[in-house]
Amino acid sequence: MNENTNPAKRREWVKNAAIIFLTIMLLLTFFSNTIMNYSLPEVATEYVQSGSITEKVRGTGTIEATDPYNIVVKETRVIASVAVKQGDEVEKDQVIYYLEDEQSDELKTAEKELEDLKLAYMKGLFGNNVSSEIITKVANGNVDGFAALQAKVGDMQKRLDAAQKRVKECQESLEALTLQSTVNANNSTINTIGEENQKADAATDLANAQTAEGNAEAAFNRMKSEKMESLNYQIKETQNAITDLETLIKGAENIAGSVSGSGNSSQPEDQQGTTSGGIDAFIQQREAAKTVVTEKFNNIYDAAQRDGSYTGGPNIDELRQWINESDDRYQTYATLLNDYDAAVSQYEIAVEMAENASNQLGSHDDNRTELEKRKAELRELEARLSEVNAMTYTPGDSVKQAQDKLNQADRNLTDKNNANKQASVAYQNQLANAEAALKNAQAVYDLLKEEQTEMNADINAELDLAKISDDIAKKEQEIEELREKSIGAAVKSPVAGTVTSLAYAAGESTKPGETAAVMQVAGKGFTVAFSATTEQAKKLSVGDIAELQNAWYYDGVKATLASIKPDPNEPAQKKLLTFNVEGEVQAGQSLSLSIGQKSMDYELVVPNSAIREDNNGKFILIVESKSSPLGNRYIATRVDVEVLASDDTHTAISAGIYGYEYVITTATKPVEAGKQVRLTD
């Protein structure tokens, strides 16, 4: 019988197999649960409990001087060296920066402006038909004052008003006589109206002819005067050009003459000054001066090399900086530096002389040619001036013809008036005199009007030239002051105090109007400021003492709340807290403070690390336990909260919990609401 067919043995085998299967399943379940637990985020928890919160407002600000003094440089200058460093205490008038000995941009600009003013002055003198009297007055500084000019204008206006009044009186007199003539004519036995009208017409024609003749003569005289003024101006300009050319030629010939003493005198006199011998002599002087500069520099550099403490290269700026670092060293090398600076000055003079010689000698031949051309132009202009000066006015026949016509009309009227016994010869003479008086009065008025126009033009020219002359004097004074500042200048502190900042280093250029250094004035304090929310600021009061968060860096520093004002950047949401700072601090340092001492009790308090935030607001994660066949499982559950207050470690909240829950504070992995976690052992 086969043993497998035995029922007892078969039952035993099934039992053992079942036991083995269940054992394996149990082991697999245990290990799978253990492995899963170790893959879960490990979290640390604390009880939600009641407690008190002491709110603190914290912030960090930069220490600033209460009343800083800004040192401003008005010119563009190169910093030679910085005499102090940040934090140094200085006395009033103590040097902050030493400046390079060189012209500032402001000096160069002022010199250019002076040239422009002088050019405008010359154009004003000779470009606007200014009278010689005005030119002489302005040149001698004898410009009339406002009162004198006002008196001159007023006197001219009085004369003009008087002349105009005289014209009006003559017109009224003539009209009255004319009216009387009509009355006399109507009362005469012989009608003389026709003859009188004829005579009046002839008188008008004569007056018109005389006026036309006067205008023609005046136009001729003006034309002649204008031509002569123009020619005189051209002659003056040409004479000035000749003088300038002769000066240039004489200068070039002087240069050539100096060369002749050096071996070039064998050339013809008319060619001396056009050769390059003079230029070569000045070039030799320039190169000799350059050699001296190199020698003086080598003396300084060799001495520095022998000293042993100089580590720089053969550079004069580096040598100056090394020398200025020590007073003893400066005294030792002062003579060598002075010798070097003197050699540089001689070299610059030699360079300028060589350039001037080159310019003058190079244009000598052209200047001689131009001189002969200008002399020919002068002779031609003088001949034309003589021709114009000889011109005379030749009157026409219109006045004589009109006078003859008037004489004839007068004779005709006289004949009738002689026949008319009631006619008065004396009355006709009065009428003629009235007409002549009116003509003369009108002529005087017209002449005064022209004189007034010319006077106003002269006054305006005088005022303009005087203004430019005054501007030139002021600009020259400004240039003189700037030149005085260009040598040995330094920037000094106007006040005693502490250097809080330096804007420039050696070799940098200052900018006009910008702050070069900031001083904390002796006896003044410091402030620091930072922003807080409006709600935080409500719990603070002026006079509160703040605590230093970085107190380890400072010793004996005290910060007192001085003001609470709206933050200029966010006036609706924030307040700017300003503190007075006492103690050993400097402007520019960073200071961290905390302030606030009011404590309150709250029912729900959690660690600060428990507070989380997303797009939906602030929340915490509490741990809830759920039973399972394999033991308890721990699930992270979200609870939305409202933060009521906080201090350095804990936060008071309002939330839908009872107060005995475990809240997650830290985790080894990111934790999501509704996900399983494991607790820290």
What does this structure look like?
- The chain contains twelve helices and 23 strands.
- A hairpin with a 7-residue loop joins strand 14 and strand 15 (574-582).
- It has helices at residues 7-39, 105-126, 132-139, 146-186, 193-264, 277-307, 316-324, 327-362, 364-389, 398-419, 425-485, 534-538, and strands at residues 42-47, 49-54, 57-62, 64-65, 68-72, 79-82, 89-90, 95-99, 490-492, 497-502, 515-521, 526-533, 545-548, 558-566, 574-582, 590-595, 599-607, 612-614, 617-628, 631-646, 650-655, 662-667, 676-679.
- Helix 2 packs antiparallel against helix 11 (425-485), helix 4 runs antiparallel to helix 11 (425-485) and helix 5 runs antiparallel to helix 10.
- It is of the alpha+beta class.
- It has five domains: 3-39; 42-54 and 599-679, conserved putative lor/sdh protein from methanococcus maripaludis s2 fold; 59-102 and 495-595, no CATH class; 125-231 and 400-484; 244-385, no CATH class.
- The chain has a seven-stranded antiparallel β-sheet with strand order 3-16-13-14-15-12-4. Strands 1-22-19-20-23 form a five-stranded mixed beta barrel. It has a four-stranded antiparallel β-sheet with strand order 5-11-10-7, with no helix packed on it.
- The model is unreliable at 262-275 (pLDDT under 50).
- It is 54% helix and 21% strand.
